[in-house]
Design a protein that fits this description.
Layout: H1 2-49, E1 55-58, E2 63-68, H2 73-76, E3 81-83, E4 95-99, E5 118-123, E6 126-139, E7 153-159, E8 165-178
Parallel strand pairs: 2-3, 4-7
Antiparallel strand pairs: 1-2, 1-5, 3-4, 5-6, 6-8, 7-8
Length: 179
């Protein structure tokens, strides 16, 4: 009787120890792969900063994306951020307008941005710093918000649940410096 009970308890303990061991290994692999993915992403971001590829970063929203030179459907549908005013280079535009879909991997969290948050644009070995000054929903017919200005400004546009309304975030240029 004692031997049977001892064997049952021993088997149960082996099972629990084995389960905990497997869980520990799985957790270490999962954690390592997550850290490795984050490291690889940060390295790619760092490498892109020092190239000619425009890049946007909004630290408070954890947004880091490449900027493409157009807002054509095929570009936006691949979940890129596109330049609305594509006729010039980023450093030649006073009012830079960027658009992207309202999905998690692009501007899905843009509604959480706060007045005063910083937005960074990286281009040609320079970092352009903007500070958010306006967050507003506008109708697609309200194009005055996107007109060029005589001062440096950034506008971010994304769709909302209403097809006729866009979320507009505007930020005023603060400073730029070489990287």
């Amino acid at each position: 009787m004692f031997l049977k009970r001892f064997l049952k308890v021993s088997i149960f303990l082996c099972f629990v120890i084995g389960f905990l061991f497997l869980f520990f290994i799985y957790y270490r692999i999962y954690r390592y792969s997550k850290i490795e993915k984050k490291f690889i992403h940060e390295k790619q971001v760092e490498e892109q900063r020092y190239t000619q590829i425009p890049y946007i970063e909004i630290p408070t929203l954890h947004i880091s994306k490449i900027i493409k030179s157009s807002t054509d459907k095929e570009i936006l549908d691949k979940y890129y951020i596109g330049i609305w005013n594509k006729e010039k280079n980023i450093d030649q535009i006073n009012h830079l307008v960027l658009a992207g879909h309202n999905v998690k991997s692009v501007f899905g969290t843009l509604h959480k941005i706060e007045i005063g948050d910083k937005v960074y644009i990286f281009y040609k070995d320079k970092k352009y710093i903007y500070q958010v000054s306006l967050k507003k929903e506008i109708y697609i017919t309200e194009m005055d918000y996107l007109k060029d200005t005589n001062y440096k400004k950034l506008s971010l546009l994304t769709c909302t649940k209403n097809n006729q309304i866009r979320l507009l975030v505007q930020a005023i240029f603060q400073e730029s410096h070489s990287l």
